[in-house]
Amino acid sequence: MKFKNMYTFIVSAAMIGLLAGCTVGPDFNRPAKPEVAAYTTTPFPAHTAAAPTALGGAQRLIEGGVVNPQWWHELGSSKLDALIEKALQASPTLVKAQATLRQAQEVYAARAGDTLYPQIDANLGGLRQQFSPATSGQTGDSREFSLYNAGVGVHYNLDLAGGNRRALEALAANVDYQRYQLEGAQLTLVANVVTTAVTKASLAAQIRAAEAILDSQEKQLNLTRERVRLGQATPDEVLAMQTQVEQTRASIPLLRNQFQYNDHLLAVLVGQAPGEKDLPVISMQELTLPVDLPLTVPSELVRIRPDIQAAEAMLHKANAEYGVAIASLYPQLNLSANLGTLALTTGALFGSGSSTWGLIGQLTQPLFNPGLPAEKRAALAAFDAAAANYQYVVLESLRNVADVLRALENDAQRLAALSAADVAAQGSLESMQRQYALGAASYVQLLLAQQQSQQTKLLLIEAQANRLVDSVAFYQAMGGGISGTAETVAATHPVYTPK
User: Fold this and answer.
1) What is the pTM of this model?
2) Which of 36, 259, 394, 407 has the largest count of CB atoms under 10 Å?
3) Higher pLDDT residue, 20 or 449?
């Protein structure tokens, strides 16, 4: 009966505390969406420039479109898809981000278990003690006896000011932050894999073009030396031609170094050591340029980019921690109760007349603690810093999209110009080949035409790769189709309600 009364008292007190308690500090409100309607001061054209060459097609922006979460499939390479799948499964970066998210979730669960519910402890103990009657002014021999006890204790903080609830809200916001960090890490990883694979394919093609130029120049150098021997050229011509040959020869190791660097980087991105095994070879011819690019308006971009959502989660966390600092200035009410038995023998431990119980209620109000107001001001300063960081991240995101949009158009124009130059260089080479066959042009003229064609092709390859990289940057700027929401977290953590 006593246990029932005690239990009823604890439950009733807890219910009264929950009903009477309030949550101090400002409730979190999501930042307003940016009011700008466009990313750039001048409108983007309906279509980019087009060129009659591989990867030279026109691209168009679909305003209000939705990015495919697996946007890399738009590039049309099964080998690239396999690399990305491997990276998503084996990248240590993602394993780390996933573990950090789990840690944040478990920290939240641990704090919720400590603060939302009463804490119940059981204890069982025994004591052997000697008692001397002389200590109480009596005579007689010392006596020894044993004392046994068993009991259950209940402890509960009523959280009158809502400090515990604000602390849980901060931890839930941290879970949000780690989830968005994971999404951002996934997006960055995929973008890096695609960019590195494209760059590697481009460098391989550039190396082949540079080697063809070197081969042509070496032939021209040999002819120049022969002309010097025959007295038809001066040694200065040999020196000038040899300078070109060595400059071209010197450019090839640089290209190879960049190729090998990207090869090693790609291996690490997919979670393997550079020397473990060869990666699939992807050529520029296997890749397709995405045509329709879904463009999210600025007001919605802030709700889908992982970096902006992470900054918003940190703002929410700072807001909740400010509430914790305010709650520390208010009274704290703690209740404790215990029910147990006390006896001289284990046989009588649970018998009638051996039960004990106790109730403790403690209300604590800070009266003089200069540190608490300082903690409140520090928490407010942290909130201001988080608000400024959020604004900076939003502005940087808008700038990122603006840069990508301009790159899409400018690189398309550059590719169109280089495509025209390539057509002209190819036409000049074919004309020179016909003239050489008829004896109307020298072999040196033919070699020069070949070199000009290969040099133009080398620039064309680089421009084609830039258009693919621009498309990757566009998908990344749009958030990659990954849109974690606070509502999902709210389903996992009921105390966190987005406003």
Assistant:
1) 0.83
2) 394
3) 449
